[in-house]
Specification:
The complex is a heterodimer of chains A (about 260) and B (about 80). In chain A, about 35% of the residues lie in helices and about 30% in strands. Chain A is of the alpha+beta class. Classes of the chains: A alpha+beta (about 260), B mainly alpha (about 80).
Chain lengths: ~260, ~80
């Protein structure tokens, strides 16, 4: 049972039964997102996570007390998840690197099942090598890849997000999934295909939205996305492009017996 | 452009790696600061300073700074 005090504070907290992770990870998973003013104890977290095998807890950066609490309970900090943004009007299309690639980049919307299947085939186990699932010895590259593919496959038929592949000098080198939320575009997933990594194309992961909007003449106000602190090469690219840091959460994970 | 001049220009692409840390034999992929962003900067450098078009794959196939320099010259 949770104490009455905690129940009052739960409004700040977001607790999600991640039922879809059963298929992805073969685990019963829960995500507990803690807020800036949440007051919570070990007992509360144990109660919330009872019966789950994989517990993910997100903590805002200024709650070091919660870091200590989770560490004392055997949680492991696996990444820092940064939310970042960049306005279209502030995007520098004249940057020397961007202007160098601009004319060599083409876009291909992924609209049909056939196009989607082709895109999916390019997503290989080592493409997202800084993902927390990839890096977790309990899971690894194949599980991480399966999870991403499942996410894409469940999102595509809903038609509430957009997909495109980008080509550099004629070769399709990466893809993007984003949602147009009118006030901004939310970058959901994307990256350079494994075969083309380490060839100077990483900048396309961050810039493709802006180049796509410009080349297709689609209105775009702002991009919001998330990046893991484990992905230093991409963090340095976002830093180079002068993205704004909106928020930062520590992500803790714990594997436990579902009988706990 | 001589190899030594190239090394200076190459080092310019880095923010935190000094030119003293880079020689002809340096295996540049192993430098802490080496990223896809620097690779793209080198592609732009080759275009601007040598008027040569090189690709990321060309860079990936080189190990040392000297190999990189010679690859650009021979393009």
């Amino acid at each position: 049972m949770l104490s009455n005090f905690i129940i009052l504070e739960l409004r700040e907290m977001n607790v999600v039964d991640c039922y879809w992770e059963r298929e992805n990870l073969n685990r019963k998973a829960i995500e507990i997102e803690l807020g800036n003013s949440d007051i919570i104890t070990c007992h509360d977290i144990e109660e919330l996570s009872r019966g789950y095998e994989y517990v993910v807890t997100k903590v805002p950066v200024n709650r070091v007390d919660l870091n200590f609490l989770l560490s004392s309970m055997g949680f492991v900090m696996i990444e820092s998840q940064m939310t970042i943004s960049k306005s279209y009007k502030d995007f520098n299309f004249n940057d020397r690197l961007i202007s160098h690639i601009y004319n060599d980049v083409d876009f291909f919307e992924v609209l049909t099942d056939t196009e989607f299947e082709k895109m999916l085939k390019n997503i290989t186990p080592n493409m997202f090598s800084t993902d927390r699932i990839y890096l977790d010895p309990e899971f690894g590259p194949d599980v991480s890849c399966k999870r991403y593919k499942n996410w894409l496959c469940s999102s595509f038929p809903k038609k509430d997000c957009n997909f495109y592949e980008y080509a550099y000098r004629g070769d399709k080198v990466g893809f993007t999934m984003y949602r147009d939320e009118k006030k901004y575009w939310r970058g959901l997933l994307g990256g350079v295909y494994e075969k083309y990594q380490n060839e100077g194309l990483g900048i396309l992961t961050a810039t493709s939205f802006f180049l796509y909007a410009k080349k297709r003449n689609i209105p775009m106000k702002k991009l919001i996305g998330a990046i893991s602190s484990n992905n230093i090469p991409m963090v340095s690219i976002y830093n180079y492009l002068d993205f704004k840091l909106i928020s930062n959460d520590y992500v803790f994970i714990k594997h436990q017996n579902s009988q706990n | 452009m001589t190899l030594n001049e190239f090394i200076v220009k190459f080092a310019d692409q880095f923010d935190d790696t000094d030119v003293e840390e880079i020689s002809a034999d340096t295996e540049f992929h192993e430098l802490d600061e080496w990223t896809s962003l620097i690779a793209l900067s080198v592609i732009v450098l080759a275009k601007k300073e040598f008027q040569k078009e090189i690709s990321g794959k060309d860079i990936k196939n080189c190990t040392t700074v000297q190999e990189l320099y010679e690859m650009i010259l021979n393009k």
